[in-house]
Amino acid sequence: MNIPNQMTLSRILLIPIFMILLAIPFNWSEWSIGEAVLPVSHFAAALLFIVAAATDWVDGYYARKYNLITNLGKFLDPLADKLLVAAALILLVEQGLAPGWITIIIISREFAVTGLRLVAAGEGIVLAAGNMGKLKTATQMIAIAVLLLHNFPFSYAGIPFGLMMLYLSLIFTIISGVDYFVKNWHVMRDSK
Length: 192
Prior knowledge:
It comes from Lentibacillus kimchii. By secondary structure, the protein is mainly alpha-helical. 74% of the residues lie in helices and 4% in strands.
């Protein structure tokens, strides 16, 4: 297994640790940040999420630069992204930090695109992510990181930046999903 795929696998393995930090009510301490309170466990979960999200960019860059792109990587990388984003969004809803309806739309889009990729794989076609999908992922990662930090540092100014980014990521999620299906509809149309 090459280094980019190992990095992607490490991202998947960080998800349970991230979930434990966010889901279990550790009574470590908390910080007041503007009008919000940030539990230390949420801060630790946010840092872990940021590290995991950063490996997404690093492994892709490394794979492209050194021509280490593999079918395993094309499968694992989007899977790792989807697992990380879904876990984070669901836990943010549980914490009352994100609207459930946005999470449902984002996760539904991911299931739909994954279904299309599975149909394509059955036909021997590998569908890579497009630029709009990468923009969607970037805005989701930023939104989730800021929401995990309880809107720090924007909470001092009273700007709901995390929520604003989540709405922006929702727009990119819908646009990229429609774009993905329009560009790859032939896979569904021509499947046996």
